[in-house]
Amino acid sequence: MWEFISNFLAPKSYIPHGHCYLWQTSLVWLHIVSDTLIALAYYSIPIMLIYFIQKRSDVPFRGIFILFSAFILSCGTTHLLAIWTLWYPAYWVSGSLKALTALVSIYTAIELYPLIPTAIALPSPKELESLNGELESQIRERQTAEQTVRLLNAELEKRVKQRTADLIDINQKLEQEIFERQQAESALRESKQFTEQIAHLIPNNLYIYDLVERRNIYCNRLISETLGYSLEELQQLGNSVVGLVGDHIHPADQKFVEQHLKRCLSLTPGSYLEIEYRVKDIKGKWRWLVSRDTLFERQADGKARQIIGIASDITERKEAEQNLQHINTQFAQRVQELEARTQEMIRLGDMTDFLQACLTVKEAENALGDLLKPLFPECHGAVFMIKESRNLVEVVASWGNPLNTQTVFSPDECWALRRGSVHIGEKSFPSLYCQHIHHQPSICASLCLPMMAQGETLGLLYLSFQQPEPLNPAKRKLAETVSKQIAIALANLKLRETLQHQSFRDPLTGLFNRRYLEASMIRELHRATRNNNSLGVIILDIDHFKRFNDTWGHHAGDAVIKVMGKLLQENVRESDIACRYGGEEFIIILPDASLEDTEKRAKQLQTNIKTLNVQVRDQKLESITVSMGVASFPKHGDSYELLLHRADEALYQAKQQGRDRIVCAVIPKGSSVYKTSQG
């Protein structure tokens, strides 16, 4: 083993790399220092990347950081091997590491490619900051306009009061002061002109609406510029009961405008009502307006007759809000998708870790249903394994009900297994469904993925979808990854079981070997001590075994040992441990068996062994007899070595007394005495 490792790390069949530099000290040291510094730099970069993503848990694409770390770490290791190969030509090790580095880099590139569009599509902080700035600017402009309107309203109310006072004064003095009346009328005209000039100059749409006549009696020029209608057309609009500009109000807003006008009838001096609505301009485009209406003139019964209002065009602000909302919605969807992918990767990692922790294939198969259900909650599915005969596929795990597929079928009934690639069945193409799938109206799509590892197809991952939406490219890619991970995990478990079987089993008989006996004996003794139970041991040896080899050849001896191994396997309990101790000697460990039970089992075995009929090359061999030594814990010993020693001494006495008999070890007062039972 050491020689293999030495040849692998420092083979002598190649020339060290230092010969290429003619072993010039300065050149060699140049490469050593350069490669060492590069390796140190490569090792420090992954550490900083891992530290960064640990500290910043909100960073997306964490998996890519880890892949980059693995790639850089493997690159650093290649530089360390470059130093090693200066003196030791381990070029196979260096090449294997470079191949591993290539695989990691290719896999990193493949994983990075689909993430680029997602990362590019995310809105930048600069774009969000720009939109927020525009929105704040419009809010400030609106606040400025509202302040101007409030000042204008105050000025207007003041002048209306002044006009009323002047009219009363003129009426009282009309007959007596004609000249003063003319002067008052002149002043009134000047005031009206001044008011109209102000109304036309303010940067808002100003209007007076008559609630009784249901029409606009005044509009300034800006509202004409906003909507494109002439002042005469605007004054005629609004004859319907729905609002300021009649049928030109958006249908979705007409009900709110109608309710607004009804509330305006109850306006009191100093109060105002505000409403946002959409109006169609002369080009047919819907424009957003925000209006503030206050009382302008009352009726005789005290109800409002006319209202005066200021309307601002907020179309650009609304469009900006909608665009911002759309961007936020897209961003939220992207974040939700990334979170979903992250959760899937976490669940996939948990599933892989769990499968790697399983000790047997059966244990992994029992856990697969519960492991896969969180990964594919919106569909039903199953995992199938191909039998050793390669002619049947059988379900080993499933989730969801109904399953919509046969539980046992031939590999030829599945397109995925026949083609060796993923197969999708869709409701619109029913003839392309696999034969093992039950055709039901509830199935919209099915997905069959062959589970392949190390060039061998191990089984099938089957998914059925009730709705077509879940079967998207991301879900399909996840299913492909899951099938590969399951196949690799099951292949590793199969290999582990095979190696474990070869490690603990005798190749000729299939019984446990001496190594397994030692480990099991110690374990069973501890368990018997802890539970205060007994434990029986039988050592048996085939009588005159050498005669079988000498008379009929070694193949006859092997046949006898095989038959003995088969008989022991068929005549022991599930908890018993039957081992081939060496040559023609066998040991049986009987947990929870008393000395009397152990003797009875030994006699039964002795009787069954005598009935064996062994033939080799059409020649019937002579009858087989065995000698047995029986011992029991704790009566004959409290340790593995002492217990086997006592049983072996009893076996020796059985042979000394003529073979074909059972001898039980007895320990009276420190000396060895044996109880014999002849067969």
From TrEMBL:
Annotated coiled-coil segments of the chain: 128-173, 595-622
SUPFAM superfamilies, A to Z: GAF domain-like, Nucleotide cyclase, PYP-like sensor domain (PAS domain)
An example Gene Ontology biological process: negative regulation of bacterial-type flagellum-dependent cell motility
Record localization: Endoplasmic reticulum membrane
Domain PAS: 191-268
InterPro entries the record matches: Diguanylate_Cyclase, ETR1_N, GAF, GAF-like_dom_sf, GGDEF_dom, Nucleotide_cyclase, PAC, PAS
Cofactor(s) it depends on: Cu cation
Residue stretches spanning the membrane: 28-52, 64-87
Domain GGDEF stretches: 533-667
GO cellular component terms listed in the entry, alphabetical order: plasma membrane
Pfam families, A to Z: ETR1_N (PF25487), GAF (PF01590), GGDEF (PF00990), PAS_3 (PF08447)
Coiled coil is among the record's keywords: yes
Keywords recorded for this protein, A-Z: Coiled coil, Copper, Endoplasmic reticulum, Ethylene signaling pathway, Membrane, Transmembrane, Transmembrane helix, Two-component regulatory system
Record domain PAC: where: 273-326
Predominant subcellular localization, coarse grouping: endoplasmic reticulum
Topological category with respect to the lipid bilayer: Multi-pass membrane protein
GO MF, one annotated term: diguanylate cyclase activity
Family assignment from sequence similarity: Belongs to the ethylene receptor family.
Name of protein: Diguanylate cyclase with PAS/PAC and GAF sensors
Species of provenance: Gloeothece verrucosa (strain PCC 7822) (Cyanothece sp. (strain PCC 7822))
